[in-house]
Amino acid sequence: MSLPEQTRFAFADAVPLAAVCEAFNRGFSDYKYGVQFDETQMERFLERSGVLRENSAVMLARGEHGWHGAGLALMGLDEQCHAWCSGLAVVPELRNRGHARTLIEMIQQKASERGAVSMQLEVLVHNAPALHLYRRLGYTARRDLLFWRATPETLAPSPAAGDLAAANAADFLGTLYRWQTEPPAWQRTQRSVERYLSDLWGYVMQINGKPVGYVACLPTAPNEPGKPRVRLMAMGVHPDGERAALADRLIASLRAHLPDTTISIINEPETSLFAPALVANGFDEVDRQIEMWLDLSDYPRNSS
Question: Which pLDDT score, from 0 to 100, does residue 224 have?
């Protein structure tokens, strides 16, 4: 006869970092975009995601060799009390038992106590179990966020391409975000991108000596040696120009500047100004997520 399941829940600052790593690595082991972290990498990941362990929940399960990390919900909260769930996972063998709901309800409660009035998250469109859970919890879809990728093989000469010059991202991010017309996903807000500032490649596009476009890129580890990759973190064009044409020119110029590089973008809004420019310059949609929001204004708060 099997022993009854033994689990307990805690906030992540109350358990060893090793347990947080184990919960993350095992919980996301079969995720489409899963990664594996050691403790140093996990600390850096949490920092760059704006996630504090004290705001995040962990599930521990008792096994033959003691307690181990078996699930977690990561929660970020910025200075304006905007809250987001940056990851929810349970190890495969303990799924479909209500544990994911317990974890996310813990961070929703914590967010409410910290003053947040909403929680946002993203879910891949084909992740039916997660979509079902979030809808049952009251989350509503806000918009679709697209993943785009362009490889060197899809590069074609474009008459729109102009010159890009290297620029310090720290000097232009504020301007870039003032130029944007649509709120970015939480991973690509100005505060989130600034956490990568030391690693960013920045570029400026000018016309007649006047800056009309900026882009910030993050170099990422190549899948194969000698095949560079970057991720577009932020981009914007001057509001006084013909924005669609400037967007096309900026993307064409970036591709011409990095001809041997695979360029990816995550969580670009489907209605983005840049979507037509990406298509026109050899980017393919490779996946999409649904951005979902939960209103926490009436969420129960602890009296203590």
Answer: 66
